Amino acid sequence: MAAPFLIGLLLFASGATAAGDDGAMELPHLQLPGIADSGLGHGSDAPLPPQGQLMHIMFTAGCGSFAALVTATPNASDVFQQRLVAGGAGAGGLTVFCPDDKAVVAFEPTFGALADSDRLDVLLHHATAGRYVRAQLAAFDWVAVRTLAANRSQSITIRDDGDTVWLWTSWQGGAAKVIKTVSEEEAPLALAVYVVDAVLLPGHLRQNLDGGYFAWLHMVIPVWVGLCWALSAMVGVIIGFLLMLGAMSRWI
Question: Name one Pfam family in it (predicted).
Answer without folding.
Answer: Fasciclin
